[in-house]
Amino acid sequence: MSEVRRRAGGRAARVALREAPLAVDSRPIRPGMSGGAFTPLSAGEVTEVIDAAYAMLAEFGMGQATPEIIELVTGAGGRMDDQGRLRFPRDLVERIVTEVACKEFILHGLDPDKSVEIGGDRVHFATSGAAVLMLDHETQRFRHSTLSDLYDCSRVADVLDNIHIFIRTVVPRDLEGANTIDINTAYASMAGTTKPIGTSMFLPDSVPDVVAMFDMVAGGEGEFRKRPFCLANNTFVVPPLRFAEDSALCLPVQARLGVPITLLSAGQAGATSPAALAGSLAQALAECLAALTVVNLAQPGAPATMGLWPFVSDLRTGAMSGGSGEEAIISAAAAQVVNAMGLPSSTAAGMADSKIVDAQAGHEKANAVTLAANAGANVIHESAGMLASLLGCSLEALVVDNDMLGSIMRTVRGIEVTPETLSLDVIRDVVHGPGHYLGHGQTLGIMQTEYIYPEVGDRLSPDDWVDAGATTVSERAHERVSQILAEHHPDHIDPAVDAAIRDRFDIRLQRG
Prior knowledge:
Layout: H1 2-19, E1 33-34, H2 43-59, H3 67-74, E2 79-80, E3 86-87, H4 90-100, E4 104-107, E5 116-119, E6 122-125, E7 133-135, E8 142-144, H5 147-158, E9 166-167, H6 178-191, E10 197-199, H7 206-218, H8 223-226, E11 230-234, H9 245-256, E12 261-265, H10 277-298, E13 304-308, E14 313-314, E15 319-320, H11 325-340, E16 345-348, H12 359-374, E17 379-381, E18 386-387, E19 392-393, H13 395-413, H14 419-422, H15 424-431, H16 441-446, H17 462-467, H18 473-487, H19 495-504
Parallel strand pairs: 6-17, 7-19, 9-10, 10-11, 11-12, 12-13, 13-16, 16-17
Antiparallel strand pairs: 1-6, 2-3, 4-5, 7-8, 14-15, 18-19
Helix pairs in contact: 2-10, 4-10, 5-6, 6-7, 9-10, 10-11, 11-12, 12-13, 13-18
């Protein structure tokens, strides 16, 4: 009986220790841990991909360049060819990469403690997407996404520790007009979280409006530029190698107003980029290098990430296959190539093809995000919440994926081998003592700093699981989402500032 009491007391102590909050720098995982251990390409192959990208820009150039882009590039040594394509000489692009482009920057949070440093081999998990469907929290059926859905995604992500950046997940299909959508998307994303955020802007005229709104929240005109807390996802290209007019018009405006930009190329292998993965990767790099050149000619040193998002097709049908093994490996290779150039990297991983939160979604997401993270991608977009090859989003998926991201980040951290962690003294104590490690000081001391624990994942024995209700992970996630929606109402925007924003802009999200 005394042994039972001792063991029970030890378990209670371990549970109490596990539940006690830790300082961020003592946690087993945290934003910005170093990746890069996984290298799908050899050093020689990386060089070949980079050389191919430079060759494309010099020989093929970019089509459909806007007048301002033409002026910027030709003024720096580029030229228009007889086919109306804008050629980028290799020496120009290389100079931008090596001498001008920003190599790392801070993406701030409205809560300063949630700011992240982008660049190097630091890994961060972000949401993202432009889903047009929402897997309804109550009915678990797909419907058109709304502005309220976007706000709910933001406030759910706000409490999930392993999502470091909240970037717009769904399109508010209950709104019309590009400027109205741009303003309200930025507002709803910002209103739901104190983490760094991201959004998209469809019109160049929207950029000053969005920045003005951010300035109001940051404390006055020009304050957002000092502490930028929002990434602009800019899909500037219509692959292959053509600028998308409206988004391309936004590039110089965003750069000059101090908005960090994700330069986003999303060709689809076998459709808008080569079916050969190496060619698809090289094309995406060329397209992003063209945009990087434009941005830095407009505003030298403007913060930007190279958003190589080479998507993959199911070549039997032509449909996008975000959950495929091919997608996983090319996303990791994209991060490796950009990091090798010393530039901030972002890629997309976690785009499950499954329509629901199930085993298919789990293995598709985990495979892709694990490879991208261990390759050292600085920002991994789409890492949580997305279903149906980016057509759908789910609040429950955000919660389940948060557990997944924690587990993946633990693999990024790896295993530290030191005289202390090799544990010879600890083993000696146990071998000559109790014969187990359950109550040893080392076990209690590192159970929070070395190990992580799922929030909705289940680790009970079968009998205990039955006794606890035999719930699925989707059911437990549903319960957690219900709790967050009922209890978490962010109020970090000063009411007077919020009122001023609503007086100046057509904000459609209802108060409260």
